[in-house]
Write a structure and sequence with these properties.
Layout lengths: L16 H16 L5 E8 L2 E12 L4 E2 L5 E3 L5 H13 L9 H4 L7 E5 L6 E4 L6 H6 L13 H8 L12 H9 L16 H13 L3 H13 L20 E3 L5 E3 L19 E3 H12 L3 E2 L2 E2 L3 H7 L26 E3 L4 E3 L14 E5 L3 E6 L4 E6 L2 E2 L6 H11 L3
Parallel strand pairs: 7-17
Antiparallel strand pairs: 1-2, 1-16, 2-3, 4-9, 5-6, 7-8, 10-11, 12-13, 13-14, 14-15, 15-16
């Protein structure tokens, strides 16, 4: 299928071309100053792409430019796809949001919760209730990441060789077994902690569907939506289009770093951050959500399922700031709740960026992001490939996009 292309002029879509020029200039400056290798940004209204810019390089050393069909490691932007996969099974009656996870993964029977201590002196107690499927979708299960350094359970993950979330050489089933052997940080459903929950959910999808996660994604989401380059690995014919991955240096520049092992099917199939996709692919995915679960005559989700996915499910209708949202995810501030693997704006006046009620989206650790604003019929994506240390571009992206909306 053809790469993403611009469909209409900005003014036809109610966008200010001069404001969009300012957006391009801002990010081009980051490229020219060596803080980004290159980027792609698209802004669509009513499903029509009204702004599409590529600038800089997908591979700086090779001099290869960013193009509309460049492939990107989208990391945590995989999570909304995993949520859609789970909801497909819920719609079919094969999975319930209130299923105890142990029904499908018996290794999660009898979870225990952290009570005190650290290291070998950690004390635990039986959990008051089971982990439910909905807790995996909302990151309220009590799971964590090993690369956090904020809780004694994080250290237990590292001791179990989970600093990168996966024991070396393990597959998804083996990895999830390790997660289940560790205590929870809190009682399921009572708090929020961004975590390995989407990997557990991916394994639930495999068990319920009887298919490997990558095959389920391809058969039930990618092919129906025409996401022709999306997957958990790439073929030889795609390799030339894959962007190099960069890390931010201490001096504020960038240098190549290792990325996802995408060349050849990975042993570990990650529902948390394993996807590669083109801008065309993710535009199709965003538009399916914006249209209430349907795109070009193909319906994946019912409007009720999309509404449920994009509602706030945090305990007591709190926002992310109440739970100390991880700094690498934006927005992670007041007025922003969390649905099924997407953030959702619940109080625009309290957010730290221009936005509107009900807008939802998520970001990836390589500085990729997307959001859907149903009230403005707006879908936006930004793609680059830098794992940041201090780089923060999403607030300016949101400000500049919203400055361009004139009706």
């Amino acid at each position: 299928m053809a790469p993403l292309r611009q469909d209409v002029d900005p003014d036809e879509a109610g966008l200010d071309a001069k404001a969009l020029d300012r957006l391009d200039q801002y990010f081009a400056h980051h490229v020219d100053e060596g803080r980004l290798p290159g980027y792609l940004v698209s802004v669509a209204r009513g499903g029509r792409v009204a702004h599409l810019t590529t600038y800089g390089h997908r591979d700086v050393a090779a001099g290869l430019p960013v193009e509309a069909d460049t492939l990107w490691r989208i990391y945590s932007m995989t999570k909304p796809v995993t949520a859609v996969a789970a909801l497909l099974l819920v719609q079919e009656g094969r999975l319930s949001l209130d299923d105890p996870v142990e029904r499908h993964l018996p290794v999660f029977a009898n979870p225990r919760v952290y009570e005190g201590g650290s290291g070998d002196e950690v004390r635990t107690r039986p959990a008051a209730g089971p982990i439910l499927v909905r807790h995996l979708l909302t990151h309220t299960a009590g799971l964590t990441f090993g690369f956090y350094y904020s809780h004694p359970v994080d250290a237990l993950y590292r001791a179990a060789r989970l600093e990168s979330s996966v024991p070396p050489g393990a597959n998804l089933a083996e990895t999830v077994d390790v997660y289940a052997s560790l205590p929870l940080q809190f009682e399921p459903g009572t708090q929020w902690n961004y975590s390995v929950a989407s990997n557990v959910l991916g394994r639930v999808i495999e068990v319920v569907s009887g298919q490997p996660l990558d095959e389920f994604f391809a058969e039930r989401i990618f092919r129906p939506l025409g996401m022709t380059d999306a997957g958990l690995h790439i073929g030889p014919e795609q390799e030339e289009r894959l962007s190099e991955l960069y890390g931010e240096t201490e001096a504020g520049g960038i240098e190549p770093i290792p990325g996802l092992p995408l060349k050849g099917r990975p042993r570990f199939l990650s529902g948390s951050g394993g996807m590669v996709a083109s801008a065309h692919d993710y535009h199709r995915f965003m538009e399916m959500l914006r249209r209430g679960g349907e795109l070009d005559g193909t319906r994946l989700l019912t409007p009720a399922s999309v509404a449920l996915m994009t509602a706030n499910h945090l305990p007591d209708n709190a926002d992310l700031r109440a739970f100390g949202a991880p700094a690498h995810q934006e927005p992670g501030n007041a007025g922003v709740g969390f649905g099924f693997n997407v953030s959702v704006v619940i109080d625009p006046a309290r957010t730290l960026a221009p936005t509107s009620l009900g807008a939802y989206g998520w970001s990836g650790v390589a500085t990729t992001t997307f959001w859907v604003d149903p009230g403005r019929d707006l879908t936006v994506q930004f793609m680059t490939q830098v794992r940041p240390k201090t780089l923060k571009v999403f607030p300016e992206l949101k400000r500049l996009v919203h400055e361009a909306v004139v009706d």
